[in-house]
């Protein structure tokens, strides 16, 4: 259950980063509410996962999902560069997160 909470927390982290960008473009209470909710759920999920998972592993996977997801969202929705080197780096981040899970 802790691993599922950690993945959901990482996805909420991605949503929070996406909402920061949306809020900067359109400052509305709805966007602000979604931003705060996403980060609240993200931190709550991380805290729950860290009750049973090692702190280093949980934090690395959480940040890996958030960082790789944020980069992918930027490519998909905000016209950021889709250079093959960026994609290789995203794959490396995700691969490192998967290896941390397999080793823990």
From TrEMBL:
Its membrane topology is listed as: Multi-pass membrane protein
Transmembrane parts of this sequence: 59-78, 87-103
Entry annotated with the keyword Cytoplasm: no
Compartment(s) where it occurs, according to its Swiss-Prot or TrEMBL record: Cell membrane
Q: Which UniProt keywords apply?
A: Cell membrane, Membrane, Transmembrane, Transmembrane helix, Transport
PANTHER family, alphabetized: GUANIDINIUM EXPORTER, SMR FAMILY PROTON-DEPENDENT DRUG EFFLUX TRANSPORTER SUGE
What family is this protein classified in?
Answer: Belongs to the drug/metabolite transporter (DMT) superfamily. Small multidrug resistance (SMR) (TC 2.A.7.1) family.
Name listed for the protein in its UniProt record: Transporter
Q: Which organism is it from?
A: Lysinibacillus boronitolerans JCM 21713 = 10a = NBRC 103108
Q: What is the lineage of its organism?
A: Bacteria, Bacillati, Bacillota, Bacilli, Bacillales
């Amino acid at each position: 259950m802790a691993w599922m909470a950690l993945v959901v927390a990482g996805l909420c982290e991605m949503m929070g980063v996406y909402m920061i960008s949306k809020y900067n473009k359109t400052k509305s209470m709805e966007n602000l509410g979604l931003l705060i909710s996403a980060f609240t759920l993200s931190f709550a999920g991380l805290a729950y996962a860290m009750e049973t998972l090692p702190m280093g592993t949980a934090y690395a996977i959480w940040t890996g999902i958030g960082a790789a997801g944020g980069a992918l969202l930027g490519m998909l929705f905000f016209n950021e560069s889709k250079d093959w080197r960026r994609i290789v780096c995203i794959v490396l981040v995700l691969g490192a997160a998967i290896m941390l899970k397999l080793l823990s």
